[in-house]
Amino acid sequence: MFLSFRTIFLSVLLIGLSTSLAFAQNVTVSKEKTEKKEDKKEEKSNKQQVDLSKLTAEQVAESAIVIYGGLLGRQNLNQIRKTTLERGKIYITDANGKTETASYERWISRGENLNKERIRLDQSFPDAKYSLVYNGEKIFGLYNDSVFTPREDASSAFQNQIWHGLEGLLRYKENESKLELSGREKIMGVDFFLLDVTDKQSRKTRFYISSRTYRVMMLEYEDSGVKYRRKFYDYNYAQGTLVPYRTVLWANEKQIEETEIGTITFGQKVEDAMFQEG
Questions:
Q1: N or C: which end of the chain has fewer CB within 10 A?
Q2: Is residue 157 part of a domain?
Q3: Alpha-carbon distance 196 to 205, whole Å?
Q4: Quick check: 63 and 214 in contact, CB under 8 A?
Q5: Proportion of the chain above pLDDT 70, given as a percent
Q6: Shortest CA distance to 242 belongs to which of 219, 261, 268, 269?
Q7: Model's pTM, two decimal places?
Q8: CATH number, residue 234
Q9: Within a domain: residue 30?
Q10: pLDDT of res. 119
């Protein structure tokens, strides 16, 4: 018996509707599975993100060391920066607002810690040229190959460059310094960790470390009742380690010094005689 055209048409229509519903159901299930997978991925990604509020002072410090030294961090800094030769310009502003410009060379022979560091700073002003030397035991000056005792303020400023500088953070373990995380602060839209580093002589430096890049953008310290602030600019890499090529120092909100590095190299031979009195 032949089926009528109407019967055949209805059968085909019902089969088509069933297929469409099944397909739609499969698509819906597939979409739900995909969405669940995406949700799980997002949830997993969120779990993998670091909770900045739970970081310890040591974790912040060690993260900064990796940023400055590369993946090997402290080991890399110790190997590459066995010696340092830095050349550049320094601009010093006196109490009357007059600025003097000098060329400088800084020679560093790395020690086990900052107590055993040896540093020589040669400064050439238009009317004078002299050196300040820190040999791990004391600070002295050299002028025309003659040894002299620097003024107290000059010695203090030179010592502050050493102990209240980046190395105070990067070598906190070697110096047996204490760390304290004093919270976070947002300045000009940048979120900072406030990390206090206090050495064995109770010299305290507060480092403002970006929570995004772990670079030190600013530090603060106090000496003889004067509040100092040093800011770091123009970061770049030198032999695989991170260096700020420009720094500015303020004393009680007045700019007193600006330093611009022209060239910096690590690993060159440095003669011991450079750090001796004679």
A1: N
A2: yes
A3: 6
A4: yes
A5: 82
A6: 261
A7: 0.82
A8: 2.50.20.10
A9: no
A10: 98
Does residue 65 lie within any of the structural domains? yes
**199 CB neighbour count, 10 Å cutoff:** 19
Residue 60 CB partners (closer than 8 Å, separation 6+)? 181, 193, 195, 209, 214
Q: What type of residue is 212?
A: R
Q: Please report, in angstroms and rounded to a whole number, the separation of the first and last CA atoms in the chain.
A: 125
How many distinct structural domains can be found in the chain?
Answer: 1
Confidence of residue 8 (pLDDT cuts 50, 70, 90): very low
Q: Which residues of 54-63 are buried (b: 16+ CB within 10 A; e: fewer)?
A: eeebeebbbb
Which single residue is written with the structure tokens 């009680």?
A: 252
pLDDT digits (tens, 9 = 90+) for 40-63: 554 444 444 668 888 999 999 999
What digits encode the pLDDT tens for the residues 73-110?
999 999 999 999 999 999 999 988 999 999 999 999 99
Task: List the one residue out of 200, 247, 203 whose CA is nearest residue 222.
Answer: 203
The backbone torsions φ and ψ at residue 67, rounded to the nearest 5 degrees and listed phi first, read -65, -40
**Enclosing domain of residue 231:** 57-275
Q: Tell me what the mean pLDDT of segment 10-36 comes to.
A: 43
Nearest to 235 by CA among 52, 61, 64, 50: 64
The answer to whether 205 and 180 are in contact (CB under 8 A) is: no
User: pLDDT grade, residue 21 (50/70/90)?
Assistant: very low
Cβ contact 100:109 at 8 Å: no
Higher-confidence residue: 136 or 220?
220
Alpha-carbon Rg for the chain, nearest whole angstrom, is 31
